[in-house]
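Re: beginner question about structure tokens

> Can someone show what the tokenized structure looks like for a real chain? I only ever see the sequence side.

Sure, here's an example I had lying around. Input first:
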Amino acid sequence: MLALAGCAQPGQLGHPEPTAIPVAPAPVPGTAAEAPAGPRVVGRGLIDIPLRFRTPAPADYAIRALELGPGEALGWETHPGTELTLLDAGQVTVQETDACARRVLTPGDVAVFGEGVAHVVRNTGAEPARLVVTTFLVQGVPEATPVPPACPEDPATPAP
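And the corresponding structure tokens:
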């Protein structure tokens, strides 16, 4: 006796034909749906202060993507470590205790806030602002501490 082994294919032996799965059209080059071909440089520039990344013990780091709507702010705060804030899109204004003058960041610009420096970041543009915030912080303590406004002419803006 001859035995045949195998599996029935769709459409054979009562198995239904598969239903067609719609395939999305290929993205048009230059559109938002197009996936990046590799790493992209989001910003490049000069940091005009000396940077020193030293910690007395191991440090925690975090990299966060944040979006602020027009008029929103992160509020006045300090950190137990260093923060680098890169603006990816939109416009923000930063202020810090060492220089109350407002500094406008445009896409690709970076603000660096040292340990314990009170600062605020506000979206002062008409569109959402996308930020990439990297922090190197002392372990086991709060990541940020809210503080009163450091610049008297500028009222505090509550955190979103």
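Each token stands for a local structural state, so reading them left to right follows the chain. Residues 1-10, 18-24, 155-160 have pLDDT under 50 and may be disordered.
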